[in-house]
Write a structure and sequence with these properties.
Length: about 70
């Protein structure tokens, strides 16, 4: 699909419907139940492949990338 490098730290949305998969230079959003690609968000900076790249408190619709 894409020639991308995934990094550690995938997260589910609070309701479990979306899966956020971090890449070195973006985030892929997929339908967690159907396993279908929905969107790709490009990031202006790279994500660190050595740490949990995405952070969520699981209570709201905010997802942090580091």
């Amino acid at each position: 699909m894409f020639d991308e490098t995934f990094v550690y730290g995938e997260k589910l949305s609070p309701d479990g419907s979306l899966l956020f998969e971090p890449l070195e230079n973006g985030i892929i959003i997929a339908d967690a139940k159907a396993g279908l690609f929905l969107n790709r968000i490009a990031l202006p900076v790279g994500l660190c492949p050595n740490y949990d790249a995405l952070v969520s408190d699981g209570r709201d619709n905010v997802l942090g990338a580091c």
